[in-house]
Design a protein that fits this description.
Blueprint (H helix, E strand, L loop, with lengths): L51 H6 L1 H5 L6 E4 L19 E3 L9 H5 L6 E3 L2 H17 L2 H8 L8 H17 L3 H11 E6 L8 E8 L1 E4 L9 E4 L15 H5 L15 E5 L3 H9 L1 E6 L4 E9 L7 H7 L10 H10 L4 H4 L7 E5 L18 E3 L10 E11 L5 E14 L9 E8 L1 H7 L3 E11 L1
Parallel strand pairs: 5-15, 6-9, 12-14
Antiparallel strand pairs: 1-4, 2-3, 4-16, 5-16, 7-8, 9-10, 10-11, 12-15, 13-14, 13-16
Helix pairs in contact: 4-6
Length: 453
Amino acid sequence: MKKTLAGLRKFNKVISISLPVVMSILLVRMPSLAHQELSPPECRVKKWDIPMSLTAKNQDAFTQKQKAPLIKRLPITCCQGDSSCLDEVLYKQIPVKQFKIQNDARRLANATLTKFKIEDPDKKALMSAIAHSLQYLQTTNAVTAYQNYQVADIKRDRVFKSLKRFRELLLKTNSATELHQAIEREFVLYQSVGKDTKGSVLFTAYYEPLYAASRVPTAEYRYPVYRLPPDLNSWSKPHPTRKELEGADGLQGAKGKLRGLELFWFRDRLEPYLAQIEGSARLQLTDGTQTTIGYAGNNAYNYKSIGRELANDGKLPLQGMSMPIILNYFQKHPQELNTYIPPDRSFVFFQENHGEPAQGSINVPLTAERSIATDKSLMPPGALALIRTSIPFVNPTGKMEERIVSRYVLDQDTGGAIKGAGRVDYFLGTGKLAGDRAGVTVSNGQLFYLLLK
């Protein structure tokens, strides 16, 4: 399946947690959901784990070579006062200036002294993401993907009808509580078994970076990204490594197989490298226009973390390592990019997308805060999901703070390092703020898929 924005992005992820793949960087540790308790006791987060009774029923599946990725269960009833159970941002109400209406009986009948305007960008975003998934589910690719899907109860037609009914409920309900109650009545949940067969899923986040770039090489813009070689399938295997393709300094591509495949040039060697990790980028060009590039292929090597190598060499402490710290290190020691980038043998090729939004692996646009990436060999593509985890937000003072939230999302992407039932990557959008948030997103939580009864 085509990898796009999810690509090999892992520069901004944690490495201290045992995973099926090597993560990239140890971030400041976020509080795990397993250690955040809600009150009263029956509302503690453990209620979101897979019940032991269901685990026992599926024990045979766990012992098989191909483990069942999802377990069916009833929706989780919200506890009173537990707002983290609800996707509250879908129903934000903002008070508008109080006003009086005089000498107009008709208008007075249709107005009150205080008006509330529904501000619903989150609802609009979710509706857009749903529309994209509905579009995908009507394609031949979706028909093929669901023909051999391993969870027998999850069929393409059922996923399609579930999305349409959820959209109806989203439009007719007036509060997050009302929506949740409707879901309890009409839907069942299929919960990911997670990385521990108890439902624990590691969440990280990704984004679309924004970089300055040029369509032509100049003395300032020297470091290129490349198109997919048209003869890549005929290259001898194993394919050339990053160092063999672009040299230790990143400037030797024109002397070998990459000659003539240059797509855009960047000022800083780190920027095209980070674009490869994220799988896409939005570019501010020197002529004042913008465009986008997206994932087109790779040289079939696994990513090797430069953050880990910095820690292994004692250049940075493992504890507390974060994206800003690493960027600051290379700003002070730019010559060391030629030491730490070449050992990563993976190399990503791009295509120009001419300003189109970042796309996921099912070839639909990704929606900030409403699209996720999972292992598509296990999880249902395009399906409606509910995630519950700890996400960083910027508070009114400009500082980052974490909140446990529930969010309805669409499963629309995958990633080279997103493997197994215990991994989700959460798309946070485009630009610096999205990048800042993605760089410190790492928390355990739960993943559910919503299907009509």
